[in-house]
Design brief:
Layout lengths: L6 E4 L3 H12 L4 E4 L3 H11 L5 E3 L3 H6 L6 E4 L5 H10 L8 E4 L5 H12 L4 E8 L1 H7 L2 E4 L3 H14 L18 H29 L5 H11 L7 H11 L9 H4 L9 H12 L4 H13 L2 H7 L12 H37 L5 H7 L11 H10 L10 H24 L4 H14 L5 H12 L3 E2 L6 E4 L7 E3 L1
Parallel strand pairs: 1-2, 1-4, 2-3, 4-5, 5-6
Antiparallel strand pairs: 6-7, 8-9, 9-10
Length: 479
């Protein structure tokens, strides 16, 4: 078989199929492989007119169809299926070839695979791909890791098939060595969880407190999407809320069970943040909110607990309340991104990846699920100050938070008084207030830890670690 294909894709479910078509549409010859050969031939039959494909049925045929250095993209389920594919193809490859994992792999698995294949001279490129099936076909945001050498060969191809930001730049950047790309994609998904939770809370407040119908709330979101909240998620929220169920004539949102599912990347974001000691409370609340929604029996058993029930506001009050909700949503959104970028920065330091936060925000401006207009301003903030400790340290964002905080607090007062849960809004505000506090109760926590476990503490007035002898005369000793 002629080695004419510039890239190969194995795993031709929706994402793999659409990425293969995207490469072909952009002028590349694409070798195709799938465990079930019928799916390979079906892709050529249905979409062969879109470009040049080479259909293969065996691993050997697939590898032989690729030009050197071989670029082999895996689009299968994360975990053991990915390892199985690597074990099948790696023995057929030569030094300098590369395996690209475009699935939602855990970054630690990517680090392991990169290390193992590096010993064989094979480049392993863990690559985050965001944008769903539409993005895979028409241009996703792409977050590759791996060696600089692999990006020199693969990067131009990824740049060609990627989404393009409003200024025309490709939404792809080399994130860093080994697992950096999948780490960035993981945090992207964590921010996505938080973003969706905050939008959901805004919807519930507008419905239960302001008394608006789903169709009216859709119009509010469309208005918001013309301003600073302009984003893909706000756009599709309006579409979902305006949709009417054909079978019942009811708002679509009212016929969907209120049990949110998840695939794991949000949980990973929180778990790794705990390991790194980074507070991502907004993302954590979003993950827990999805978990709570799925405990149907617990919720049913608790539905009659005592508490207020929301009473819709009057028309003029509702309009003013909607404006306050917009402020709370925007401020909480800034906090979520602040926490996400903090985690990326901490991960970069921990694993020596040297991730460019400005470049990350730039590639999220198009193609991905959290694409939003204000990412351009985040990019500008990090470009101006690469050592920016927090988005809240940026003067513009700090001013916007300051302008929003009174309304933000009023929304949470209303939510509490009317018994409407708003864990995302609340966690974001608590994070903001904790950062700006002169003193935190952590001093008391350290005192308690010293009392029951002799864990020691540090003083504000001199260096060193100290322990109080609590059981005796309570004298202090230097630890």
């Amino acid at each position: 078989m002629s080695n004419s294909a510039q890239i190969g894709v194995t795993g031709l479910a929706v994402m793999g199929r659409n990425l293969a078509r995207n490469f072909a549409r952009n002028g590349y010859t694409v070798a195709l492989h799938n465990r079930t050969a019928a799916r390979t031939h079906a892709l050529v039959a249905d979409f062969g007119h879109e470009g040049d494909f080479v259909a293969t049925e065996t691993a050997k045929e697939f590898v032989e169809a690729l030009e050197r250095p071989r670029r082999l993209m895996i689009m299968v389920k994360a975990g053991e299926p990915t390892d199985a594919v690597i074990q099948e193809f790696a023995p057929l490859l030569e030094p300098g070839d590369m395996i690209i994992d475009g699935g939602n792999a855990h970054f630690e698995d990517t680090r392991r695979r990169e290390r193992d294949l590096r010993g064989q001279g094979i480049h392993f490129v863990g690559t985050g791909v965001s944008g769903g099936e539409e993005g895979a076909l028409n241009g996703p945001s792409i977050m590759p890791g791996g060696s600089k050498e692999s990006y020199a060969s693969l990067g131009p191809m990824l740049e060609k098939i990627s989404a393009k930001a409003p200024d025309g730049s490709p939404c792809v950047t080399h994130c860093g060595p080994d697992g950096a790309g999948h780490f960035v994609k993981m945090v992207h998904n964590g921010i996505e969880y938080a973003d969706m939770q905050l939008i959901g809370e805004a919807y519930q407040l507008l419905r239960d407190v302001a008394g608006y119908s789903p169709a009216q709330i859709a119009d509010i979101f469309r208005t918001w999407n013309t301003g600073r909240l302009d984003s893909y998620l706000i756009e599709i929220t309006a579409e979902v809320l305006s949709h009417v169920d054909a079978a019942t004539g009811k708002p679509f949102v009212d016929v969907v069970q209120d049990r949110a599912e998840q695939k794991g990347t949000g949980r990973w974001t929180v778990q790794i943040a705990l390991d790194l000691g980074v507070p991502v409370s907004g993302i954590a609340e979003a993950v827990f909110a999805r978990s709570l929604s799925g405990h149907a029996d617990l919720r049913a058993a608790s539905r009659e607990l005592v508490g207020p029930r929301a009473k819709p506001l009057g028309e003029s009050e509702a309009a003013a309340f909607a404006d306050r909700v917009e402020q709370a949503l925007y401020a909480s959104k800034i906090v979520s991104y602040t926490q996400g970028f903090h985690e990326i920065s901490a991960g970069s330091d921990q694993y020596d990846w040297d991730i460019d936060l400005g470049a990350v925000s730039a590639i999220w401006r198009g193609g991905c699920i959290i694409r939003a207009a204000f990412l351009d301003r985040i990019r500008a903030a990090y470009d101006a100050r690469p050592d920016l400790p927090s988005l809240l340290s940026d003067e513009t964002f700090a001013q916007e938070i300051a302008a929003a905080q009174d309304d933000w607090r009023e929304v949470l007062v209303a939510a509490t008084r009317q018994g409407v849960p708003a864990p995302g809004f609340s966690a974001a505000l608590a994070y903001y207030d904790a950062l700006r506090a002169d003193r935190l109760p952590a001093a008391l926590t350290q005192g308690q830890r010293d009392f029951f476990g002799a864990h020691t503490y540090r003083r504000v007035d001199r260096e060193g670690s100290f322990h109080t002898l609590w059981g005796g005369d309570r004298s202090e000793v230097e630890a």
